[in-house]
Design brief:
The complex is a heterodimer of chains A (655) and B (94). Chain A has 25 helices and eleven strands. By secondary structure, chain A is α+β, with helices and mostly antiparallel strands. A six-stranded antiparallel sheet of chain A has the order 8-7-6-11-10-9. A five-stranded antiparallel sheet of chain A has the order 1-5-4-3-2, covered by helices on one side. Chain B is mostly helical. Chain B has one domain. Helix content of chain B is 73%, strand content 0%. The chains are: A alpha+beta (655), B mainly alpha (94). The interface between A and B is large, with 55 and 47 residues.
């Protein structure tokens, strides 16, 4: 889709960014020491820290990714909301207070408090860097997705803007300003998400045949004994024809039929056959031609239509049937879900066809029952839930396991425990965080379903569902929500870069390499590291443009849970843990989860765009690693700890 | 014993609450994975089990967090009283 920036949206966006930068500069003047730069001197009030937890945690994955996944696939996106929130139980009941008691600036400090081992500090520092980088990718992708409708800029420009602003924030001020930016954006995000949910319920649901641009998609039916060509001919379409036998369209997963509209436009229809009828639903096509031009629905992108509009993909997402009427009027939160469950919706899917002129993506509508939308298994990656056999369900189980274990292992979340005064304050701030985050995640279901039925979705980008939903409600709201979403990315990216900088300056340079850095030098090195990590994040954000950010964050959770959680848990609860065991647990968890992801079918199809070797089907049979690599890390830690345990003193042995 | 030691009474209480929630979560994952047809069953207010269970997992997390906070608060007040401090004094220890 082509996006026109509005002056109001750009003004509000610029205002938010300037407030964020002003806050950062103001608070940065007093930060000179390591304690101030990495941990805000431990002076953040617990309730501010609690909301900052929400600001830190509710990243682009939560706001853009989950809303987008629910908008396109229904309940499967909500699985992430549930898993992301459930992980806080591990953080509160198991990790929060010991983390605060044991550590100083970084996650590695806590892990190394008992042993004072350079090896642990290095392993945990590397793990922090890798987890933070994997978490940074979706944030940057989200930033790119935001600036397209907001400023009319390309994806890479959004990534670059976020990278530059965040590097500025982190370099100028460190944890004090990062905390207040996260507090600011966490408060606004939860409040305006609630406003959006209220507006969605007030708008209610209604049936339609197209999206917010007023275009009505064609849907024709005929008897089962007829042919698609005859049905289209009878409906007034010219020269309807099935693809030729040697056409790449014949190899497609769906059956298509082509025709020319009475107005002379080329059209593609998807053929759906049932026992008593044939249904033909209009599709949309996006073709990247070999000469570099982009064609939409058989004509060049951007070409003027007779009505003065420009040729582009039409927005999608609508209900075709409600239980009782064509419109419900305002609905309560329960009635809204019940109406969706009783409705029929058009969910759009896509497939790529290698046509002679260039690769063509066909976006086709699929009639889906509301009851299916509100239960798991609609997303292709979770389709195994609705299939028999254990293997097909392992991807889902593995993801839910990793989400549960991942939150309490994320370095940028763990370092927030050092910004408060005491273990009691750490616990209180976690409870405040759970309240704010839980409330937000309940709202995500309404936002996602609101977007699904808004008629405003961009079929090419799941990540833009929330901002486009806001635009369908109100232009002001769109401007504010986009600006908040942008500060959402800023807040989370700041925390991630700060965690990475701490790993480099404090864990690796300060501790492992024993460089003997003074306070000011350590802070200076951390700032240099921030610039480098920020630059790497910008590059990765551009490379991963088309992946759903929620899905990408799932990977970061898997690596964090595999590398960090077993070490933390065993350190706290198993007295025979040795420093070699901790190192083994971190390294085995990190390498195995990273390797699993890099060799998974999802990575081959979405990142490498290459066929996967057959033998990998056996080694890595599903994409989410957690269910294998988290236990593997526990086993490595236990085995190595037992093997390296020092012999008990004779006196003790004689007891 | 340090109040935040993994073996302190409120840490044990935390582990108990953690175990309760984990069971609730594992049961959810099991039902969604192995009896998915149950997830579509209509429940209270005509909304299905999957949605209600999802909401409940979020709400119960908050309720258990508050219960934990409340329990620990009582414990801290007791230990502060025994030590001749006010609870506020104890909390302000860095």
């Amino acid at each position: 889709m082509i996006y026109e920036p509005s002056v109001m949206a750009v003004s509000i966006f610029v205002l938010f960014v300037l407030i964020t930068l002003g806050l950062s500069l103001y608070l940065g003047r007093r930060t000179r020491s390591s304690a101030g730069y990495f941990a805000a001197h431990g002076q953040i009030p617990w309730w501010v820290n609690g909301i900052a937890f929400a600001g830190d945690y509710l990243s682009a994955a939560s706001f853009l990714g989950i809303c987008g996944m629910i908008a396109f696939y229904g309940y499967d996106g909500f699985l992430y909301s549930i898993g992301f929130l459930a992980g806080w139980i591990v953080a509160l009941f198991v990790i929060a207070e010991p983390m605060k008691r044991l550590g100083k600036y970084t996650f590695a400090d806590a892990l190394n408090a008992k042993f004072q081992s350079r090896g642990i500090q290095l392993a945990a520092g590397i793990s922090t860097l890798i987890v933070s980088l994997f978490y940074l990718i979706p944030q940057m992708v989200g930033a790119g997705a935001l600036v397209r409708p907001l400023l009319g800029l390309p994806h890479w420009a959004g990534v670059l803007i976020v990278g530059a602003v965040v590097i500025f924030i982190v370099v100028t001020a460190g944890m004090v300003s990062t905390t207040w930016v996260q507090f600011f954006k966490g408060s606004l995000l939860v409040f305006f998400t609630a406003v959006m949910a209220v507006l969605i319920l007030a708008r209610g649901l209604r049936t339609s045949t197209g999206g917010v641009d007023g275009y009505q998609f064609v849907h024709v039916t005929g008897p089962a004994e007829s042919t698609p060509e005859a049905i289209l001919q009878a409906a007034g379409f010219v020269n309807p024809a099935l693809p030729a036998d040697d056409s790449p369209w014949q190899q497609a997963a769906n059956q298509y039929v082509m025709a020319t509209s009475p107005q002379g436009h080329s059209m593609v229809f998807r053929v759906e056959r049932s026992d008593d009828m044939i249904e033909l639903r209009e599709c949309q096509t996006l073709q990247h031609r070999d000469d570099g031009s982009v064609w939409v629905n058989g004509r060049p992108l951007g070409e003027k239509n007779p009505d003065g509009s420009i040729n582009q993909l039409h927005p999608i997402g609508h209900i075709v049937r409600l239980a009782q009427d064509h419109s419900t009027g305002p609905l309560g939160p329960i009635a809204y879900l019940r109406e969706i469950g009783d409705s029929d919706l058009l969910l759009w899917r896509s497939e790529k066809i290698p046509t002679a002129a260039g690769p063509t993506t066909v976006f086709y509508p699929r009639l889906t029952r509301g009851s299916e939308v509100l239960s798991p298994g609609e997303h292709p990656k979770f389709a195994g839930i609705r299939q028999p056999g254990l293997t097909s369900k392992l991807n889902f189980i593995s993801l839910m396991f990793a989400l549960f274990c991942g939150t309490a292992s994320l370095p940028h979340i763990l370092i927030r425990y050092y910004t408060v005064r005491s273990a009691v304050a750490a616990r209180k701030s976690t409870i405040v965080g759970i309240a704010a985050i839980g409330f937000f995640y309940i709202l995500t279901l309404y936002l996602g379903l609101g977007a699904m039925t808004s008629g405003a979705l961009d079929p090419t980008d799941t990540n833009m569902a929330a901002p486009l939903l806001a635009r369908s409600l109100n232009e002001w709201l769109f401007a504010i929500i986009s600006a908040i979403a942008f500060t959402t990315v800023l807040g989370t990216v700041s925390g991630l870069i700060l965690a990475s900088a701490g790993a480099v300056a404090h864990d690796v340079a300060g501790y492992f390499l024993a460089m003997g850095l003074g306070e000011a030098e350590q802070v200076r090195l951390a700032k240099v590291a921030s610039v480098i990590v920020g630059a790497v994040a910008i590059v990765l954000g551009v490379l991963f443009e088309n992946m759903n950010v929620g899905y990408l964050v799932g990977w970061a959770f898997s690596i964090a849970a595999s590398a960090n959680l077993p070490a933390l848990v065993m350190l706290l609860f198993w007295k025979r843990t040795t420093y070699q065991g901790i190192m083994a647990g971190v390294l085995v968890g990190m390498i195995s989860s990273l390797g699993w992801i890099l060799l998974s079918a999802d990575t081959f199809s979405s990142v490498y765009h290459a066929p996967r070797p057959q033998w990998l089907e056996v080694v890595v049979p599903f994409s989410q690693p957690g269910i294998v690599t988290i236990p593997l890390s526990f086993v490595a830690l236990i085995v190595v700890s037992l093997a390296t345990a020092r012999p008990q003193p004779l006196l003790a042995a004689g007891r | 014993m340090n109040a935040t030691s993994p073996h302190s009474p409120h840490a044990r209480w935390g582990i108990t609450l953690f175990a309760i929630y984990t069971l609730f979560y594992v049961a959810y994952v099991f039902v969604m994975a192995f009896i998915p047809e149950q997830s579509q069953r209509e429940w209270i207010g005509g909304v299905n089990l999957a949605v209600w269970w999802g909401f409940a997992l979020i709400a119960v997390a908050f309720v258990l967090a508050v219960v934990y906070g409340w329990t620990c608060r009582a414990e801290l007040e007791t230990s502060a009283y025994e030590a001749g401090q006010t609870p506020g004094e104890q909390e302000s220890q860095p």
